[in-house]
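assembly run, all chains below
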Amino acid sequence: DTEVTQTPKHLVMGMTNKKSLKCEQHMGHRAMYWYKQKAKKPPELMFVYSYEKLSINESVPSRFSPECPNSSLLNLHLHALQPEDSALYLCASRLWDSSYNEQFFGPGTRLTVL
Amino acid sequence: AQTVTQSQPEMSVQEAETVTLSCTYDTSESDYYLFWYKQPPSRQMILVIRQEAYKQQNATENRFSVNFQKAAKSFSLKISDSQRGDAAMYFCASQWDSGYALNFGKGTSLLVTP
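ok done. output:
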């Protein structure tokens, strides 16, 4: 199994809703990432988890709350989002001590905030 | 800090022809990795090719090859025998040390014409 899966594929939510994005990998990777990508722009790093611990938070607003319950699963909890948060949210994973340093990306969740 | 620059927002190539996408980077690190990622429209981002900075030999993957000029801090991607499936956004990226996320360039949108 060499893939990163993300659910849901699409999500539409109002500004008062609470929703969660899910990311899963079974490659034994111990580093997992959340990125935000706007149309025709590169991905922007949001969070990095290393061995299930949050290691990097790129000054992301608190309305985004990450969670890593185990080594295979990464969640992003959303609450009170703004329309400008509409974007493609990408999850990625990487084998921590690999000399290749390749990140594997999921297909993303396309989020629309109304 | 590392910066990655892609100076070509859009490129066009005819099928079966060769195209070169440019990328320059800036870093003070001695150990780093360079990548080209491909993101087709509404599809998953995938790794095209990687280069370890300590290796002098240019990486090659089938029709894809790089021209890595370490002193000039240049890392261009050459696509030979271009195919329709090569149409995508191409991101140049760098990464140094374990545990840090990718530094992306702004991307080059490649159009493949008949």
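The two ends of chain B are 41 Å apart (CA to CA).

Chain B touches chain A at residues 33, 35, 37, 43-47, 50, 52, 89, 91, 95, 98-102, 104-107, 109 (CB under 8 Å).

not gonna interpret more than that til we talk
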